[in-house]
Amino acid sequence: MCGIVGSIGRGEGTVDVLMDGLRSLEYRGYDSAGIALGPETTVLRKSGELDALSEVVDATEPTGTYGIGHTRWSTHGPPTDRNAHPHTDESGRVAVVHNGIIENYAALKAELEETGVTFTSDTDTEVVPHLIAQRLDAGVDPETAFHDTVDRLEGSYAIAAIVEGRETIYAARQGSPLVVGVGDGTTYLASDVPAFVDHTRDVVFLEDGQRVVATPDGYTVLDSDRQLVDMAVETVSYTAEATGKSGYDHYMLKEIHEQPTALRQCFSGRADALDGTITLEEVDEIPQPDAVQFVACGTSYHAALYGAAILREMGIPAEAYLASEYALSPPPVSLGTLVVGITQSGETADTLAALRDAKSRGVSTLALTNTVNSTAARECDHAVYIRAGPEIGVAATKTFSSQLVGCNLLAEELVDGPRDLRPLIESLRDLPDDVQSILDSSRAGELVEEYADSDAYFFIGRGTNVAVALEGALKCKEISYEHAEGFPAGELKHGPLALVTPETPVFAVVTGDDERARKTLGNIKEVQARGAPVIAVTDGVSDAAEIADETLMIPETSERAAPVLANVQLQLFSYHLADALGRPIDKPRNLAKSVTVE
Amino acid sequence: MSDVSTTSGNQLSSAVVLAAGEGVRLRPLTANRPKPMLPAGTRPILEHVLNALIDTGVDDIHLVVGYQANRVRSHFGPTYREIPITYHTQTNQLGSGHALLQARDGPEGSFLLVNGDQIVDHRIVEAVGEAHADAATLAVVEGPEAADYGAVSVDGDDVTELVEQPASGEFRLFNAGVYAFSQRIFEVLETLSVERGELPLTDAIQRLIAADEHSVGGVRTDHFWIDATHPWDLLSLSRELLSRGWVDAPAIDGDIYVDDTAHVHPEATLVGPVVVDSDAVIEAGAVVGPYAAIGASATVGSGSVLQDVVVDTDTTIGPNTTAIELVAGQGCELGAGLTVAGGPADVVLDDQVHGDVDLGGVLADRVGLGGGVSLEPGALVGPDATVGEGVIVRGRIDAGSEVVR
Predict the structure, then answer these.
(1) What are the residue ranges in chain A where pLDDT is below 50?
(2) Rounded to a whole number, what is the distance in Å from the CA of B78 to chain A's nearest CA?
(3) Which of A27, A41, A573, B84 is the most exposed place for a label (fewest CB within 10 A)?
(4) Is it the case that residue B221 has pLDDT exceeding 60?
(5) What CATH topology corresponds to B14-227?
(6) Complex ipTM
(7) Domains, chain A
(8) How many whole angstroms separate alpha carbon B293 and alpha carbon B235?
(9) Interface contacts (A, B; CB < 8 Å)
(10) Residues A108, A127: contact at Cβ < 8 Å?
(11) Rounded to two decimals, what is the model's pTM?
(12) Percentage of chain A modeled with pLDDT above 70
């Protein structure tokens, strides 16, 4: 359940505003989509990508002077027409769009069914229009009916509703993002700013518990006690065009090629190569933590594994936790513990829940994120930005690279004591050009011809390269739909080796020539003995290139920087594999860019 | 013969920029990027081109890209200075007319056309846009270079003849490569075919003149205009830009320009005109300038003396280097004690000897030099080549080669 939009005050152009808004939120989900238009509560909805809805809109030419819209990523009920939003009450007076999960929907549904209401969808959302209708039937005005309904909901949600005969949009935010765009005579609502940035850059970022009542004359923000709140209007700087593909076939490829620029931005002004110091201006002096717990999901979790590994090397106890597990079985914390949430969007529901859990237990929290003003950035005690720029491709690429650099900057900021950071700074400064040299010369695309119809793909590494192996496998499965697994190289013989055959290429990430590298060479021979072809991703310092069947070279650099480079080669392999297989690379099935449900 | 969408006297808001060509005469610097992405001062030539367009009020830019197109796309992305960029791909480089045809679905109505590898004062662009009335308008410059750029004959405000590669001395006026066109140019281009591997824009303009002698206007201008033909021209290009202060970093003292994020050691000396771009580092005791352009994230080692140099992004110059008239590409790692004594030199490019060139040496991208290397005047080192300690480099070293002695 993913993106919502709303527009009021725009008159006849409303349908276009809603459809364009949904188009720019498609990264949040694309199982189905729909719109509802007032004053007649005309509802159009369709399963499939937004183009399916566009066809319906083009064919029926609906009219309306205000409305709401939704692009959906299924959590409750399969992606069918009848589960598509907006949902209505039985009489069709009320239409509702919703992003999030209503946790007490089963109880509410049972209660409504007892009073004779018939449900037409499998969604949790449908309780909302029925509850509003029930209050309307009880004789209250639409705004009161909306408030009364929202008061009864538990869980996380961003909701927008329209009621027949009343030229108003009602909306509420609790745990899922919702922003108000303040235009000239028009008020916009959306899950994210790009939905209306073509029309206005003046934005109100709502807080949890707040509600909005928008009419053609303007909008008011109310708290959960229905009292007026005065909210600051902020002007956002980014343009709608910043989300264009720049002529690349896919956002993912564009973002892979943007990595030198992204890394330069991440690092710029934060290190002094002359005196060997690193400074993060956006955080006040943070005392050195006794322990660090990282919480994150997906690709960000792999960055967290890397971050924890480098902190441990610096003598700080540090662990990475999957955010979805963290709040359910919270590890012990002490007053000196710092919990770091890594989330590209700053809206990942699982990560937010873990951070909130940590906060409720009284420890400091820090968000490492790409999104200024995101929920994570606002709720944590500290926020560090990775400055990667907008990322649209569902498969994270440049933000992972920037997260790894961000972990280095953060670790050096957190750990006290004098030390010469010049060698580290030099290698991080070299990263943009080192990545560029890979982009200029990578052979990853050629390997696809040879290995495109393999049974499965395995990725191994040791130390910080474990994170690279896991990320390589995740990227591969996300966009190519091929079976891919990543393992710490030493774990192979404890089970996964049974899967290795001549039809399963193994990507071995081997950098430097320390004990980890030497032991990984042993693992390479282990899988070669089972007939598997081995592709070494290596800087050429060890003998990996000589032993392996194929090689993807990276420039020689520091131990800290090498994982960034190795990962770029694996990104390119996965991209070219998915491209060769004809996959919809920017919109892999069943996935959404930022997962705002738990 | 006027186009309905053309309005005379108004500044045009759309522009097409041709940035698809490699620029073979600038090899080995173009191994990884097209000529428009080579450094002019510390920024790509194309950045200066787009600046000129935006300074005249252009708010719709169409970039035709081809050779190493990803370098252009990833540098500028979907917008530059908040102006949207639309990319058009020319898969095979078949001349300027063919390049423009790739942008046929781009601008609506009349538009400007400029070369992405040529820096022009924005007033030239402005003049062409303002004078544009009919099918085509082009900027005309007076000078001895007609033989290199294509000669022009004018009668009043009309261009009456275009001559590619005229016999030298015959003409004094030449085509500055800044145009305004109505949509008719596309109609004419579509009637022409690629011959001998090329479809030059000038062929289409000749057709316009042949069809109606008043359809092509010429605007005389004497504003600044410069491009680079050979690798050493990047040095004079940089000198010109530094002299004019056309650099993208704030002036900290007179003609000394240093980005806020750069780090210059208190015991280093900058001698203007000089520019130090973002996150660059100048170590203690270095003397940099005059006429030095130090690119983003580049490093100048302690005690080095640099004069008349272009050092591109991410290149590290080791301590105690002396370099005069040096062009260094991106990501070079140069060991301590490099000596580049400067020109004049006789440089051989494509079997052609260029005599008395002021050039210390050219290093392409990601060249690695060991300590104590010397470049003889005019040396050219190809991309990814490595040169061992103490080697004296003469003439040309090929891409990727390893020279140990």
Answers:
(1) 1, 239-242
(2) 5
(3) B84
(4) yes
(5) Spore Coat Polysaccharide Biosynthesis Protein SpsA; Chain A (3.90.550)
(6) 0.81
(7) 3-242 (3.60.20.10), 259-428 (3.40.50.10490), 442-598 (3.40.50.10490)
(8) 9
(9) 89
(10) yes
(11) 0.78
(12) 96
